[in-house]
Amino acid sequence: MKRKTYIAISALAVIIVSVIMGGSFYMLGYSLDPDPNRRDIDSALQVLYGRAPFMKAWTDSVRGNGLLRDTFITSVDGRRMHAVYMRGDSACGRTAIVVHGYKDCHVTFLYIGRMYQERMGYNILLPDLNAHGLSDGESIQMGWKDRKDVIRWAEVAEEMFRDSTGKSQIVIHGVSMGAATTMCVSGENLPEYIKCFVEDCGYTSVWDEFRNELHDEFSLPSFPLMYTADMLCRMKYGWGFTEASPVSQVRKCRRPMMFIHGDKDTFVPTWMVYRLYEAKPGNKVLWVAPGTEHARACLDHPEEYAGRVGAFIASAVVSGQTSSASEK
Description:
Blueprint: H1 2-32, H2 41-51, H3 55-64, E1 69-74, E2 80-86, E3 94-99, H4 110-119, E4 123-127, H5 146-161, E5 169-175, H6 177-186, E6 194-200, H7 206-218, H8 225-237, H9 246-251, E7 257-262, H10 271-279, E8 284-289, H11 297-300, H12 302-319, E9 325-327
Parallel strand pairs: 3-4, 3-5, 5-6, 6-7, 7-8, 8-9
Antiparallel strand pairs: 1-2, 2-4
Helix pairs in contact: 1-8, 5-6
């Protein structure tokens, strides 16, 4: 009898462990496997036009006239990384690096680039993150390892766009996962020419974001899948959900940062921006866009968005100072 009980318990334990590990592998693949159609730029353009129909004429014009150009670099570990760039008419060494969101690419946030190029006269550079768009890569990195690639793109932008006196002023502006990437960049030891950051609806950490999605999409608790998937991520990709923490990076940031979030965001819950804002020392600005869901602040409030971002950057870049302010 005892032997049968032992066998039954052991079999049940094996089944439970198998289910948990199977669920963990599924969760990791579901979250970090790239879109198999990520290189389909025509489809990405249709996504852009669906979000922002006003962008079609502009995009066709700048692409048709060769103003929006491709560039490729090789990362330190041998990956081929892609970006597009466009020169501003009166940039004078000022450049905005615009970082796209999760399973998007440079195309789908061209409207942010247009804002900088048209409204502010900036050069623009829009990279494809690892395993997105035309960049190489086997897995999505949720902004964590991407921070090193964006710093490399900033070096490229500084070389390409420095003014006649050899000076550059670079703003890094990211949306969603691109915002998380931007915040992860902000905590590093950076060159002087990176002046400030704009993060739009970024998450506090990968752990917090995945936990939120596990609950909202699958109605599952954090334990045990979050813990086993985190372990698998560390083993397979060399980073963990808690390690990939924009809020920890923001605590180390000593340059001006603007925080933007929609007050109706449930994909990256609005509460996250308050924690991020509180963690950031020194110069910072917060704008919570009314009635706005995830990654739609610029589309819902285009004039106010451009005005607020422009005012922040003018203060942060030109004078080197910006006051702390929180606005709804």
